[in-house]
Design a protein that fits this description.
The chain is an alpha+beta fold. It is built from one helix and three strands, in the order βαββ.
Length: 62
């Protein structure tokens, strides 16, 4: 029996979204909160400077 697992790395450019609006946190922190609840998301981290740094994220999806 063989198992094939597809894992994809996505680079998402999202800007930092400074400040707080109507009690909502910044865009990046809210994005992290939402994606951490998604079962198919294995990991999410800030991107390297060459890929956008703090204004982008790497998302590992299975």
């Amino acid at each position: 029996m063989s198992v094939c697992l597809l894992i994809i790395c996505v680079v998402l450019a999202h800007d930092k979204g400074h400040g707080e609006v109507l009690g909502q946190t910044t865009l990046k922190s809210r994005l992290f909160q939402i994606l951490q609840q998604e079962p198919s998301v294995m990991a999410i981290v800030s991107a390297q400077p060459k890929d956008g740094g703090l204004e982008a994220s790497y998302i590992l999806v299975s």
